[in-house]
Amino acid sequence: MIDQQRLWDHEAAQSYDTPGQGVFAPEVLEPAVRTLARLADGGSAVEFAIGTGRVGIALHEAGVGVRGIELSRAMLERLREKIGPEELPVVEGSMTTALAGIGHTLVYLVFNTISNLLTQEEQVQCFRNAARHLAPGGRFVVELWVPQLRALAPGHGGTVEASEDGYLLVDTIDIHSQRLTSHHIRFDPRVDGSREARIGRTPHRYIWPSELDLMGQLAGFELEHRWADWAGAEFTAESPSHVSVYRLLRDPAAER
Q1: Domain region containing 87
Q2: What is the DSSP track for 10-24?
Q3: Do 126 and 155 belong together in one domain?
Q4: Same-domain status, 91 and 190
Q5: From CA 229, how far away is CA 252, in angstroms rounded?
Q6: Where is the Methyltransferase domain (predicted)?
Q7: pTM (two decimals)
Q8: What is the distance between the alpha carbons of residues 34 and 72, in angstroms, rounded to a whole number?
Q9: Would you call 101 helix, strand, or coil by DSSP?
Q10: What total of structural domains would you count in the chain?
Q11: For the chain, what is the mean pLDDT?
């Protein structure tokens, strides 16, 4: 059993924010916010796993009423340093079960976070919980990477995903269980031959796009769009990630 509070602790919360860089860079964040604001279609939105508020705060500032759900107390504390609960309410809990109101027009889950749920059952429950939050016709948006199993060399169980000054990202993959563990290795690039390095590991369960679509069908959704990025580029067999937009077909209240 993974201790999520320990995994997403204060160190993770503080290091996640990189203003103006990485996932906080304007060219990354602004297209996501514009697209989500359009998909909200004048209604309110719920962000599953809102974290430190990277997207939620920006969407709130764009004029969309946003609520959040967050499991990590450390991430929530960091968010509260930036915005108060009267402006952006957040429910502490799991995105598989916690409820942040009903009748919303948009629920969204960004930056591969659905893969933090480590079983297929939990991932299906995440879709069902999204449906609980939505009015009929509402949308659930999932941003997720495509498993790059073609990069695995024969006889090897891992890939090097990043190699930069002071940082290596190595993913190890168990194809049988669809489990992937990211190993984040940070070191001082100025010291040749140093034995000192810091290693952090994050576990995931990867999901194929077709499997994700089936999860949506089980919860009453149909796939409306699949793009290669937030700007709406065409998704192809070579795309490393996707933004998938699901539309709710039936009223979940009728099944309760």
Answers
A1: 4-146+207-255
A2: HHHHHHH--TTSGGG
A3: no
A4: no
A5: 29
A6: 46-138
A7: 0.86
A8: 27
A9: coil
A10: 2
A11: 88
